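Input for the complex:
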Amino acid sequence: MSRIIIHIDMNSYFASVEQQANPFLRGKPIGITGKHQERSVIATASIEAKKLGVKTAMSTWEAKRICPSMILYPGDPEKYSYITCQFNSIFNEYTDCVEQFSIDECFLDVSKTATDYLEAIVLAQIIRERIKETCGEQITCSIGIAPNKLMAKLCSEQVKPNGITTVNQQNILKFLDTCKLKDLCGIGTKIENRLNALGINTFEQLRKFSLEKLVNEFKSYGYWLYEAAHGRDDSPVINTYEEPKSIGHSYTLSENTDNKKEMKYCLLGLSDRVAGRLRKECLVARCVHVVVRYADFNEMTQQQKFTEPTSNGLTLFKIAWQMIDQWLDESKPVRLLGISATTLSRGNEHQSLFKKERKVHSLQKTLDEIQNRYGSNAWTRASLIDVHFKERSSGFHSPNSPSTM
Amino acid sequence: MHEFLNDQIDVIASFCQNRVIPKRIRWNERDYDISNVNLVHTAREGQKRIFYFSVSDNTNYFKLKLDPEYLEWHLVELYN
Ligand SMILES: [Mg+2]
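Predicted:
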């Protein structure tokens, strides 16, 4: 049976939410940044800033050079999570098959709600109006309607802001041939370059290319590319909550530092936060990944696996610091530190054989309860009493932060 | 200018249809009449739910914070 899939993508999301909240930002080029503006990147540029050439993930420094009149505005993740929950609950009124693809993008399988494309278009218009009524005039979205997720996403890219674009089974190939290879979600610059090297510059050429040679070059991705070139994608809209693959935090220091003690405190604070989130989600980790970004933007990363799964902040910290201590280039000041816990599984930490560790474990439970009740600042380690993380950031550095609702 | 602060303020608000609408605030010994409530959102602080009101008059944007447990209002952001 053929499906009808809707993809909804909010336009310049974080910037639009801020323009909704603060009317003095409306109609102006603004860029949503992290906590330290001059050391941050543009998480979202407003529609006005994009028109002037500012792009997402540009450094604030470069964005200001291109667009000196641009207003830099610190992001407010709590606000965005709340609005995301609001429009997700609107979507759920129209179909029980909603997949949140990112904080500002969703797929809806409306095959049961809409019997044909005309009905799907009407539904899209209703949803668009509902978002405006509930969240505010400034918060707009682009909508794509197609027989599968891949084509629906490609459709929603076509008209920004506020567009509704449809493509049905009959005109998929014609539509694809008006698009560039890189427009497709799944073809990045690297893949595009490799395709170009094979003499493939258009979807038409990709369709005509031999499947065997594609698989030779790209392994199993070759099949995907071949199917995609025909506008085919049978991946379902998954509405179940997916377990996180990793939980991580990183932090740009307020000033670059070569002071190891300061780095250790920062890392311990981050480790505690990661561990707290692991415990909240009843997860344990068997791998730690660290990142150190130097002032010259060179980055070092490393990961280490271990056998005893943990959700303890101090344990995570010790493993992380041991790695960093081995290769840290002490001649170079450090700008950012990050830690993530990966290879996650459901469960609690094993009870230790040692009395002292068992004590720590039961204390941890109580400390978690205190934080759940009174918020994450309710207690801190004595060693971290002088470490204050600036909370207000774009959320850019914590892609899997849980919704605040 | 964009300022982050945490000043306790007095608020006159109306309650209608399950909604709270701030009408006037008193901050720094001055009254400000709210002309628009642009966005309302909530966030968790531990088990508590905190309400935030993004409001404006003709020249200022204010972000107000309401703690429903203590019925305390704070001005947390100012932009003008
Ligand atoms: Mg978007």
